[in-house]
Each structure stands twice: as structure tokens, then as C-alpha cells.
Amino acid sequence: MINLEKIKNVGSFRKYKIDEYICKEGDKGDEMYIVLSGRADVYINLMDGTPLKISEIPTGGFFGEMSILENASRNATVIAGDNMIVVGIDRNGLINLIKEEPHFAYNIMKGLSSRVRRMNSELKEISSQFRCSLLEEDGHPNQEMDRIIITDNALFHKNHKHYEGQEPDSYKGFYYETDIKCPICEKEFTAKQQRLSKLCLDRIENDFRRIYKDFEPLWYNIWICPNCYYAKYYTDFENVSDACYKKIKSDEKNFKEKIIINTDGKLDINFVFATYYVALYWANVCNDNPLKVANLWMSLSWLYKDIGDEEMYEVAYEEAFINFYEAYYNSKTVELTAAQEQQMCILLGELFYRKGEKDKALKHLRHAVRNKKTGVETLNKKARDRIYEIKNLGE
To answer: What is the pTM of this model?
Structure first.
């Protein structure tokens, strides 16, 4: 039983509303948290930067202890799954609490052990999640749309078109508006933040696209500042290196001559496409690693597929393939975890297969199958299943 009086002397009580961030992956970790009421949802960022829920912390549970014990950055993002009350305890507070309540150290060790034992079941849960239209119209991207005017066609691929399709009203229940401070111009603007607690994963396709019930996150994955037009994946929006900041600032005036953004009006598919192309523009200005560029092109390929533009779908996934290949084989700036490397091999296998290169596809899929110490069994199974399908089902 947690002694609230003892905790009161070493920690601070806080309230969080549902979907509010408590801590983010990669942040400096200087506190651990005990959940007094409500539920915390734990997410990790996948290779493309999108979040995947891996576990829940119930009332009475705790999280964040590894960061202060190891003096390391957060290895996961934690979001309030319900309205919550937590108590935050820093390193000194934890030491004092253990001195007064020695059994608390035992509870931490027991909790860490339990999490290790739970790993296989959590991976099975992820595995189960693997199983758990708009009209095309020819046109040109330099005409005025509801929310965006392009004054330089070079921003888009030469075969990009003007499309029809607006944000469905049903999407409104899956996001909320939040105030964001742009890391480039330092002005605040309102962005649409996805309600991760509302998303229900239906399946994950062979190229790792996540299909959700009644919602398409691709429409909201890119945040764009309406003041300086800086754009990036929302999960990485605030992370700008000093070198990248200088390059964006030096090019900001030049870029603003290419585009005019109107933040009024209903979100439409042309604006969504533009946000990805603007993000690509800044990725190239900053010489971002090819993995980030690949993920942008992959998302664009899915959008083109949804809109029914087969020509641009082929163009976009070919660009994605080129950059994924470069990231895996030639880039010195891309660092992958073991699980991400497995995911990369599976993805390259799928892209090779789409290109009609069956032998190279099977080679990469086989390379994705690792032993238990270095691989994730869920991804091993996904690779084996895809090898079987390609070899025996004649897909």
C-alpha cells in the first residue's frame, strides 16, 4: 500500500486530462510517476515516427523510473488514457522515499521484473493488432484552393494534380485543437492533435501502413506553421538542430514566395498533400537523413493510392524505395534499433516485390528473421508469413 503522507513529502501531485502528454520519448527523464487515479497509455515511435501503443499503466502503477535510475532519456511516450492524478518524484525524492519505505525499492524491482515477463504477451498483443472515396480530377497545383495557394509549381512533383475531397465530419472526434509554439519563428498557432486513445487499429498492411477504423491519421501527421511555413511530422515537430534552424531561417523568405496559406476553411486533400511536400522541402534544405525523406514519400504514396492516382502512387513509392535503400545500405546518419532494422528489411522486401524483383524481396525478408536475442518474434513471424505467401501463393 502506498503511504500518501510519505509521498506528499517527497513528490508533487498533478492532474492530467485524457490525451494529455505526461512525457515524450527522447525527453530528459528527471522524474518518475505513480498513478493515483486513472490510466496511462505507453507508446513507442515506429520507424516512420508514428506512435504505437504497447502497454497501459493502471491505478497504483508507476513509470519513468528507468530514466532517473539510469540518468537516461525517456524510451517511450506516456499519455493520459483517462483523466488522471499522478505524483511526480525526482531522483532525490526517490532516494529519500526508499530510505523511509525500503519496501518501495522492492516494489520497483518487482515491477521491472513483471514488465520483462510481460514483454512476450505485449508483443502478442501487437501481433493481434496486425489482424485486429475520393474522386480524381485533372488540374494544376497553381490554382487557388480552399486553404492553400501555390505560386511555384516546383514545390510539387511535375505529375501532381489537383484533387477533390474534404475532411470528413466524422474525423472531428479523433482529434483536438492544441496551441503549438513554432521552433523556427517562435510564434504560437493552433494545430490538430490526434486523440491516440480514440484510435482503433484494424490491421497493418505488408508495407507497414496502419489502417484504423473510421479515421485516417495521414491527414493530420504533418504540422505546418502558418507564419513561417515550417512543416514536419508532429511527433518530431519541435526537434530542430541548430544547423537546421540556421538553414531554414536563411531560406524562409525565399520559400514564402512559393506558397500562401489560408488557415480558414475546411481541411481538404490538396492542403494535406501540400503539407507533405512542404515537409519534404525543409527536409531537403536541412539535408535530413534519407529515412526521414523515405517516410514522407511513403506517406505520400498512401495518399495517392487513396485518391486513386496510380501514376503518382508509383512515383511516390519508388522515391520511398530509393531513400529506404539509401538509409539502410549507405547512410551513416541513420541509427536503427534491432526491431527497426527488422522492419526495414521487411519493408525493403515488400518494395522489391512490388518492383517485380522476387529474389531480392525474399533475400531481405529472410534477413529480417532474427534469433530471439536480437529479434522481435512478432516481426519474425511477419517476415516468415510473407516469405510463404510470395513463394507458395504466387501473389
So the answer is: 0.72
